[in-house]
What we know:
Number of domains: 1
Number of helices: 5
Structural class: alpha/beta
Distance between the termini: 22 Å
CATH superfamily: Nucleotide-binding domain of ferredoxin-NADP reductase (FNR) module
Radius of gyration: 18 Å
CATH topology: Rossmann fold
Number of strands: 11
Helix content: 10-25%
CATH architecture: 3-Layer(aba) Sandwich
CATH class: Alpha Beta
Strand order of the largest sheet: 6-5-4-3-7-8-11
Largest sheet: 7 strands, mixed
Oligomer: single chain
Shape: globular
Amino acid sequence: MSYHRLRPTQGGGEDFAILYEILGLGTQWLSQRRPGDSIFVYGPLGRGYAVRRSAGNLLLVAGGIGVAPLVWLAEEQVAIGRKVTLIQGARSASSLFPAHLLPPEVEVVVATDDGSAGHRGLVTDLVSEYLSWADQVFACGPKAMSRALADLMRRFEGEGARRRRKPVQVLLEEVMPCGTGICYGCAVMTQRGVRLVCKDGPRFELRDVF
């Protein structure tokens, strides 16, 4: 699950939404809550995306429920005049985030495993044609998607010295048992050594992890 939207309230606080898929006991319990129920929430944890000031064209790559933080990012960035293209992939059309719930300025491109909407295949199949346009790339999704994206970036940048390295940030999906950095249950190996997703992430440079 991920933070999905944030809205200021009249009293000076903030309302937030979480996008999730029912996969176990926790999300099953959450799906049964009703308006007015109280729950305890600890977070948000770690660091989110960081957009460079010089980046005018943003490419967002989402796999499955990983679209959640990218919706928030897309809304924020088009509101300040940046151009945003969101490529999202899912198992089928019913699992895609509805494009009509995004700002109309966001270009949405989709891929589905079964071909029920958009491109039939993987979301990473569509990334190459947007890389020359994008100033910065942001991704969130399964590890297999991030690994495929890292391989694609290496091929793209390895075609000649004429291409500079393109900044790519990824939010890692890991179980965070404690959320405080004590248990090391969310530890990942990076080129800079062991890092904790709950404290050092979940934002990482793609090349540091994959």
